[in-house]
Model the fold of this input.
Amino acid sequence: MAFNLEDYEPVASRLDRFLKAHPDARVITDLVHYMADIAVFKCELWLNDEVIATGWAEEIRGQGNVNKSSHVENAETSSLGRALANAGLSGSDFTKRPSREEMAKVVRYEGDMKITGTSNAPSEKQLWKYKSELKKAGLLPPLNIATMSKFEVSKAIEALVNGEVPAEPVEQEEPF
Done:
């Protein structure tokens, strides 16, 4: 691994510094998406009556040990870390903008890659749900189903549940 987790500041330390500097600040988190074991959070940092920064994060249930039981909490903390970094609280070294928690996610992802060969493949449960929703809509599974990522399958399930025809697969963005 090309980095040391100890070089990255935890979200709790950043939050402590922020709240000490701005005791009247507000931190608002919102679970904006939860489907097929994927949680997406948005965090807003407010000073007075103005949003000064936002942060977004997603976590997938079961991806690494922490996410076996706490993927929702982990996503919320990561969104807070992103918002704090966007507000300029990225630790003493500006090149270490991601929080320790975000870099731990990279470690989890790398670990999954070594164990399974791919951490981006949809689970059997997710594929079953996708095929079930396709069948309800009178559609056949796409030819590329074997190469679809968790993200792509999740978006396709969401579209089907909302009565939409699934879009072409979408590339997943880098975490930062």
Observations:
- Strands lie at 26-35, 38-47, 50-60.
- Residues 110 and 116 are 10 Å apart (CA to CA).
- Confidence is low (pLDDT under 50) at residues 112-118, 169-176.
